[in-house]
Design a protein that fits this description.
With 425 residues, the protein is of the alpha/beta class. The protein is 34% helix and 22% strand. It contains 13 helices and 19 strands.
Amino acid sequence: MTNVHMITQGCSSNSRESEIMMGLLNNSGFEIVDNENDADVNVINICTVKGDTKALREIRRLKKLHNGSKKLVVAGCITESIVPKIKNIDESVSFVNTHNFGRISTVVENASSGTVLELLDKKYEQKVNLPSVRKNPVIGIVPILNGCNYYCTFCSTKLVKGRLFSYPMDAIRQDVKGHLKSGCREIWITSNDTGAYMVEQGGKQKIVELLNQILSIPLDFKLRLGMMNPANTNPVLDELIEVYKNEKMFKFLHVPVQSGNNEILKLMNRQYKVEDFIDVVEAFRKEIPEITISTDIIVGFPSETVQQFEDTINLIKKIRPDVLNLSRYAEREGTIAAKMKQLSTNTLKQRSRIITNLFRQIALEKNEKWLDWQGKILIDEKGKNDSWIGRNYCYKPVVVKGDFKLGDEVDVKIVDATSFDLRGV
């Protein structure tokens, strides 16, 4: 029997594809092992959205560690430009991209016998209701679409994922039910842009209809909605807010803004203005004041001036997000922005440091407002040093100690806070 170990990088969509690949491999008679040293074949599901560096570093590590004694399969978000770089590290690597991961068993079987396969063409197929091996038994990750309807100048997602392709509503609802019946307490709805659901099939967002279909399932669970771009959120804003008032919805909203300056957003081809982002945040906070707001920022986009960077600082001060995913701009081969004049590395580091320090102070002040709060959390993660991590109704991470297990619902009181989490007893 061939032993296979899975290594995953990137977003929740990648995590779900890894779970499905493990399920398919398991059904084909392969043994899934937790330790790469016990594997005959290591599969690394890479992410190239923020560049190639992390993926290439991991591939070099595996090559050096095992010195060719174990076969390697690279899966996931594989750009054309990264393939020759990987081959320079290890010419015996097999490839299976995100469009072909359903054939992972064939690729692994051939790799184990020394035959290299490269499955890198684009296909558009549903990625729901497939066998899987979940990493977390209480969290069900459900993709609702593949691809993107944006053409951002800095991003390689479009190059990798291709055009927008939404999955049928009934199939998604069935996938959710399958996760719940097998013991999941949380459902994560994920994609490159959940707000774009069904836009390619008539131009109208159907994310609200989908959420209502899922929430109507008569079982006990919490639903977390993944990232939505402002341009796809505003057209259904009022209806979306009403959905969020459902007790099953985590009061957690992830809307990326990327920059606080409209000129930079135009250069990024983001299809919205700063004011549109502010409208979304303020509308949600008006109806659900305690909602957790998450956003994304890229610092150092080509040509970003000091004043344009100041606009981003001012936006963060105005919005005061609870969660901030901060990235330094990095060139992605094949994108328009890669051809623009780049800022210096020192400038990127300095601007990143300024935003980080600002946000940590804001995050601490926001979290301290939860001190003395009492309520229920759902334990969904094992922490460090015998601790557990649960989520309250606003998806705030709460660290607790005790004799718990994944899926437990626990009454807590918040007694301390950091920039990153709450501490409860």
